[in-house]
């Protein structure tokens, strides 16, 4: 019998696995796919490596989440490179260069928005201050929402004056803060909407101020290019996990989780494993397909409610091309029409491999990933699927070619929510966590600890939220809690 079985090898799963193995727990990690990482995974075609999503690296700065995690696990960081330019944001009439260094970014603001630059800089400084207050608390890894009196006392102990100073902003939106500063510039608001949709899945009207503050500050703490893509980090953590004595089994899909005296986890290979704890690393809306009915009846999260909670899917284009980019930026955001919704190809992120990264592409070539938000349920209409995929691909590439004429395309593949459902086993291909529905949406977050003893959650649909940092922290919270319950 195992102490803990971890289902899934996204950032949350491999973090939990490695930390528990280091603490001496007998662990088994099960991955359904051929590749590690889930939505942070990779695949290869014709000497090109592609990341599942167009993602930057974060948390590798001194005292960042991954720097702390690697130190805790006694391992070295994979090769990463600080980006002085986070990304170029392309509008039809201009390009905004989003700088990592705060003062350089403020200079760009002064050039791009001279009329409102003072107010915009004050707005960003407020965001940085709020993020400092919130992250100083979140990085202490509290269990939110607290599930027991013990958790409540821990939350009180980990809270500080900084966090209390952020309390007045708890139920405000980013739109409310912009109104406070008198900022109404259409292009700047479109810029913010693009950043927020990519990081927290919504725009200024529905984005809680505290959540938006973290999203708008995180790149200024450190934005990085990771050699070989984010999957390199997942593989490094998984390798360390195995070195610490953990068991990892690939291509073994969990089809049932039930509880008798202990937890019983059954896979598609007709194997049943027993454990004291089960950690599910995946979206909450995907767990119901494998939970036994007896667990569902007592589970505080209701399946029907989950089906109604909105979440995005991703439409992705993967390309292997010749290296003829006339720019030093590796990441590019395109906002085609700033008056329209930030989805379905109107806003998309393009990431290109670094010219020196031989893991991603051969000499003289680049690997490209393009990603846009899309309504996932629309893609399950098989009659319209092919035409929808063709139209959206053409729409996106037409806009890209105006800025970067793509010649000699060696590989071109397209992924839809159907693709993500197939390869990452997410219900309906929903990715990126939930879509916030207003300033009060912070109250609807789920804790990594469930109401069912011994059943834990980590990933993008539980506290502290989506993204590589949020998922890793959720896994770390689970590892801490299991160790404390020993």
Automatic annotation (TrEMBL):
GO biological process: carotenoid metabolic process
Residue intervals of the Amine oxidase domain: 12-482
One example GO MF annotation: oxidoreductase activity
PANTHER family cross-referenced by the UniProt entry: PROLYCOPENE ISOMERASE, CHLOROPLASTIC, PTHR46313
Protein name per UniProt: C-3',4' desaturase CrtD
Source organism per UniProt: Anoxybacillus mongoliensis
């Amino acid at each position: 019998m195992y102490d803990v079985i971890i289902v899934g090898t996204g950032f949350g799963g491999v973090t939990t696995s490695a930390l528990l193995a280091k603490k001496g727990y007998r662990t088994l990690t099960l991955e359904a796919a051929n590749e590690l990482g889930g939505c942070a995974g990779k695949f290869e075609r014709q000497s090109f490596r592609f990341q599942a999503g167009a993602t930057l690296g974060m948390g590798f700065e001194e005292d960042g989440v991954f720097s702390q995690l690697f130190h805790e696990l006694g391992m070295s960081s994979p090769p990463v490179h600080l980006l002085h330019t986070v990304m170029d944001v392309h509008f039809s009439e201009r390009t905004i260069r989003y700088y990592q260094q705060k003062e350089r970014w403020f200079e760009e603001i002064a050039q791009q928005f001279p009329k409102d630059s003072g107010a915009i800089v004050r707005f960003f400084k407020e965001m940085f201050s709020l993020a400092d207050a919130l992250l100083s608390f979140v990085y202490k890894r509290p269990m939110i929402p607290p599930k027991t009196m013990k958790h409540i006392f821990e939350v009180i102990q980990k809270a500080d004056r900084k966090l209390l100073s952020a309390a007045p902003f708890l139920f405000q939106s980013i739109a409310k803060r912009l109104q406070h500063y008198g900022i109404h510039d259409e292009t700047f608001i479109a810029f913010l909407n693009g950043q927020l949709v990519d990081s927290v899945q919504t725009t200024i009207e529905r984005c809680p101020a505290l959540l938006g503050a973290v999203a708008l500050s995180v790149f200024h703490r450190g934005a990085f290019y990771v050699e070989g893509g984010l999957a390199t980090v997942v593989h490094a953590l998984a390798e360390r996990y195995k070195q610490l004595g953990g068991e990892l089994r690939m291509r073994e899909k969990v089809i049932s989780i039930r509880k008798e005296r202990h937890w019983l986890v059954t896979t598609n290979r007709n194997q049943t494993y027993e454990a004291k704890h089960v950690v599910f690393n995946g979206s909450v809306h995907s767990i119901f397909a494998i939970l036994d009915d007896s667990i569902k009846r007592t589970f505080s999260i209701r399946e029907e409610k989950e089906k109604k909670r909105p979440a995005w899917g991703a439409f992705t284009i993967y390309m292997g091309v010749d290296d003829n980019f006339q720019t030093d930026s590796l990441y590019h955001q395109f906002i085609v029409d700033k008056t329209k919704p930030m989805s379905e190809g109107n806003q998309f992120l393009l990431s290109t491999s670094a010219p020196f990264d031989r893991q991603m592409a051969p000499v003289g070539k680049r690997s490209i990933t393009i990603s846009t938000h899309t309504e996932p349920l629309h893609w399950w209409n098989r009659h319209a699927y092919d035409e929808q995929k063709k139209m959206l691909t053409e729409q996106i590439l037409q806009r890209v070619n105006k800025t970067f004429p793509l010649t000699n395309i060696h590989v071109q593949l397209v992924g839809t929510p159907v693709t993500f459902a197939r390869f990452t086993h997410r219900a309906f291909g929903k990715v990126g966590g939930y879509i916030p529905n207003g300033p009060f949406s912070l109250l609807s977050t789920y804790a990594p600890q469930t109401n069912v003893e011994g059943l834990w959650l980590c990933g993008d649909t539980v506290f502290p939220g989506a993204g590589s940092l949020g998922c890793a922290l959720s896994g770390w919270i689970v590892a801490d809690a299991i160790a404390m319950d020993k």
